[in-house]
Write a structure and sequence with these properties.
Distance between the termini: 31 Å
Pfam family, one: AAA_21
InterPro entries: ATPase_AAA_core, Bact_Antivir_Def_Nuclease, P-loop_NTPase
Low-confidence stretches: none
Number of helices: 21
Number of strands: 18
Helix content: 40-55%
Protein name: ATPase AAA-type core domain-containing protein
Strand order of the largest sheet: 7-11-12-3-13-14
Shape: elongated
Largest sheet: 6 strands, mixed
Radius of gyration: 30 Å
GO molecular function: ATP binding; ATP hydrolysis activity
Structural class: alpha/beta
Organism: Pseudoduganella armeniaca
Strand content: 15-25%
């Protein structure tokens, strides 16, 4: 049905808009208010409206073209004969099908020649008949609608078109058993369709599977005893209801275009991952399309593990400019498999505006607290929507920064000034990890070595005894210039030496042992207390402000397109 999508934005301001061919699953990720949910609504408008809408996020949706014989076979499959007293107009086709959006039975007429003409040329400016047809295969689920999916439904006439997805599940043994398998693996309970409230179908969670279809679908004493022993699904938690509702509707309702906004709502991370895996694997090898907006790394991991081809589109919006970037599975899988990256939850970075990576956990905690106080004070030096992560040392900082930047995420690295002591392959890590042009590696290496000699002549430890304050005159100017060059590429070196040297006005021990607890105690926790440390001029406050400035640059250096 759908062939490709073109976004309004590209990988960075000024770049061509992103256009990509559709896989069975497309997942939109990004920070809050970046346009993820808006993208789903606009795709729905493109699919169901008679002519292309003007949208903020989606520039164009390209539809697949039908062959005449294929579409005539499709019409034969969903067309029905008129009932007694029902008039079918000349050249019209009477459509009868389950409507996935509200699980009602759709029955209406369409002008057959016009519908066929639209299907053979679906990308023209006006496709009024085709939009009506596509609406029969389009389902959008949000937080409210997914909980109502498991409500009791009329059974209808089981010899005719199923009036809803529960009736479809009741008469379709294969779909019912597939849903039952998924629910059992998730909760250890067997989902059954209960017909004993005559005229209504309802879902239950049984401790055992029915012995056969007759026990589940009958009205006799055996069936009544079986169902009475199983709790109603409506009495379960919202998480269970949401999970079962989405799985049931996707499998029994058979929508061809499904749009789900934040499917992880109500779900524990483990359950969100399972949902992602199951609904993705259900689409593997099909021509159906699933579009998801998520803020859950667990759900995303489940989708990647589901076995179907998947597109991951990261969108951002800073209030002025938008970006859209296609993330390949090949680049995401290392983030899921690498023990270092997995242990610190690096996949969560997809949902933040920026990332700051530090050498150790104490560094991370300190810089994160500084940023929080800047944001609380509405200080422009604060970094909105920033995730702080810690590496194991200054070398592994760049093992985290590099893959994030490859995904288009502005990830800055903070290292102590003794990084200048490192030459050879160790020095090459920040150069490569921050995507400094290779032609500049040599000249920066020469400057680094010259500055190392200047520090050595002082006879003092650059990290412990003041950083660039140990230098004077031209040597200090040269060091400032050198650090500024590195900062252009998101490599931020602590000019005062080490993290413990910040907040110089605070009188505490600067040794590593117990430093973090001591400095936090001095900084205070109650903003109403006069001794509470608030943002000031210079010092670490400006240092974080420099990182914020780099993050906000529309065309920042060090992040590849």
């Amino acid at each position: 049905m759908l062939e490709s999508i073109e976004m309004r934005a590209g990988s960075s301001p000024g770049r061509d808009p992103l256009k990509f061919s559709l896989a069975p699953v497309t997942v939109f990720v990004g920070p809050n208010n970046s346009g993820k949910s808006r993208a789903l609504k606009e795709i729905e408008e493109w699919v169901t409206r008679p002519q292309p809408p003007v949208c903020q996020v989606i520039q164009n949706v390209e539809f697949s073209t039908w062959e005449l014989g294929e579409f005539e076979a499709e019409l034969a499959r969903i067309s029905v004969e008129p009932e007694v007293g029902e008039v079918l107009n000349t050249d019209n086709v009477l459509i009868g099908k389950l409507r996935p959006q509200d699980n009602s039975a759709a029955r209406f007429q369409l002008y057959r020649p016009g519908l066929i003409e639209d299907a053979l040329d679906p990308n023209r400016a006006y496709r009024g008949y085709y939009g009506n047809y596509l609406s029969l295969y389009t389902l959008r689920l949000d937080g409210r609608s997914r909980l109502s999916l498991i409500d009791d439904k009329p059974s209808g006439d089981l010899l005719r078109l199923a009036p809803n997805h529960l009736a479809k599940l009741f008469v379709d043994s294969a779909s019912r058993k597939e849903v039952r398998r998924i629910v059992y693996e998730a909760f250890g309970k067997h989902l059954v369709v209960d017909p004993t409230n005559i005229g209504l179908l309802r879902l239950r969670l049984s401790n055992r599977a029915p012995r056969d279809d007759r026990e589940e679908q009958g009205w006799d004493e055996i069936s009544r005893a079986f169902h009475s022993a199983a709790p109603l699904l409506s009495e379960a938690s919202d998480g269970v209801k949401a999970f079962v509702g989405m799985v049931t509707t996707l499998i029994a309702g058979e929508p061809r275009v499904t749009l789900v906004d934040e499917p992880e709502a109500f779900l524990h991370p483990t359950l969100a991952a399972r949902l992602g895996k199951e609904i993705t694997s259900a689409l593997s090898g099909t021509n159906r399309r699933l579009f998801v907006s998520t803020h859950s790394s667990s759900f995303l991991m489940g989708c990647v593990q589901g076995g179907a081809a998947i597109n991951i589109v990261r969108v951002t919006y800073d209030g002025h400019t938008s970006t859209a970037r296609l993330l390949t599975q090949e680049r995401l899988i290392p983030l899921m498999r690498n023990p270092l990256l997995r242990s610190i939850g690096v996949l969560d970075a997809l949902f933040y505006n920026a990332v700051v990576v530090t050498e150790a956990d104490a560094d991370r905690a300190f810089y994160q607290e500084i940023n929080e106080r800047l944001l609380q004070a509405h200080d422009p030096r604060g970094i909105e929507g920033c995730l702080f992560l810690n590496a194991q040392n200054k070398q592994t900082v760049w093992d985290i920064v590099q893959p994030l930047r490859e995904l288009g995420i502005p990830a800055a690295g903070i290292v102590d000034i003794d990084v200048l002591k490192e030459g050879g392959a160790v020095w090459a890590k920040p150069m490569k990890g921050a995507f400094v042009p290779e032609i500049s590696h040599g000249s920066l290496g020469v400057e680094r070595n010259a500055l190392l000699q200047a520090f050595s002549k002082t006879g003092k430890d650059m990290k412990k005894h003041g950083g660039i304050a140990l230098l004077a005159g031209e040597e200090r100017e040269a060091c400032n210039n050198f650090l500024a060059k590195l900062a252009e590429y998101g490599i931020f070196v602590v000019p005062t030496g080490k993290v413990e040297s910040w907040l110089a006005s605070v009188k505490i021990s600067r040794g590593k042992s117990g430093w973090l607890a001591t400095v936090f105690e001095i900084m205070g926790e109650d903003p109403l207390n006069p001794s509470y440390v608030r943002p000031g001029d210079g010092d670490v406050w400006d240092f974080i402000g420099d990182i914020a400035s780099w993050v906000r640059l529309p065309k920042r250096k060090g992040v590849p397109d």
